[in-house]
């Protein structure tokens, strides 16, 4: 399919890494061993690392676009501007990583899923700087809660529809729903329940 936005960018890079390499050297000029640093609402600094499928950018205007290729179908958490209770953080984090790796700022960029098959109708789902600014407080709350959970060892089970897709479903306690119901009034469980309701 033709890309109507291709003319905005004079350069492109593939497999752009941010953070230490786990797979040996790579050839992307935009890659860096430095992770992306994000400040959470709780004042903690998170070091995020990953690899972006493609980054298109313009040295003249500072515009950039991060693309993550998807071969499956579009799920509800793949809708534009969604955080899905912390289950859809890839695009906002890629927006920030793209700004850092191109030397630009989030206001000049966007991050998108590109569904490259008939299963996904060749659809593009975009997360823009406007989405980021509108959801910034919620994103920081999610990252802060997840960070605090990791720091304190709060990894309680959160059973739901997603369990049927999990490769480790058979390893979980068969009583997991009952156990979670018994712990509903625990402040840590309540916090994660509230986080899970963020659209």
Can you give the mean pLDDT?
Answer: 90
* Count of discrete structural domains: 2
Provide the low-confidence segments as ranges.
none
Q: Shape from CA axes?
A: globular
Structure in words:
It is globular and about 55 Å long. It has 199 residues and is α+β, with helices and mostly antiparallel strands. The chain folds into two domains: 6-149, no CATH class; 156-196, no CATH class. The mean pLDDT is 90. The strands form two sheets. A five-stranded mixed sheet has the order 1-4-5-6-7. Strands 2-3 form a two-stranded antiparallel ribbon. Helices cover 27% and strands 22% of the residues. β4 (50-57) and β5 form a beta hairpin. It starts with 10 loop residues before the first strand and ends with a helix. It contains four helices and seven strands, in the order βββββαββααα. α2 runs antiparallel to α4.
Highlighted features:
single chain; 199 residues; alpha+beta; 2 domains; five-stranded mixed sheet; two-stranded antiparallel ribbon; 4 helices; 27% helix; globular
Task: Please sum up the structure shown.
By secondary structure, this protein is α+β, with helices and mostly antiparallel strands. The chain is built from four helices and seven strands, in the order βββββαββααα.
């Amino acid at each position: 399919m033709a890309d109507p936005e291709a003319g905005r960018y004079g350069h492109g890079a593939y497999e752009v890494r941010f953070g230490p390499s786990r797979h040996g050297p790579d050839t992307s000029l935009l890659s860096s061993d430095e992770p992306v640093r994000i400040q959470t609402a709780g004042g903690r600094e998170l070091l995020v690392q990953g690899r972006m499928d493609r980054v298109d950018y313009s040295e003249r205007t500072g515009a950039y676009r991060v693309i993550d290729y998807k071969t499956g179908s579009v799920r509800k958490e793949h809708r534009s501007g969604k955080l899905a209770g912390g289950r859809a953080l890839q695009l906002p984090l890629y927006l920030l990583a793209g700004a850092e790796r191109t030397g630009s700022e989030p206001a000049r960029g966007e991050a998108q899923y590109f569904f490259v098959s008939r299963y996904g109708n060749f659809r593009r789902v975009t997360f823009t700087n406007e989405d980021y600014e509108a959801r910034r407080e919620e994103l920081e709350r999610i990252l802060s809660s997840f960070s605090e959970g990791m720091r304190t060892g709060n990894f309680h089970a959160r059973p739901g529809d997603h369990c049927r897709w999990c490769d480790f479903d058979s390893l979980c306690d068969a009583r997991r729903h009952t156990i979670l119901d018994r712990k509903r009034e625990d402040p840590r469980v309540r916090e994660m329940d509230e986080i899970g309701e963020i659209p």
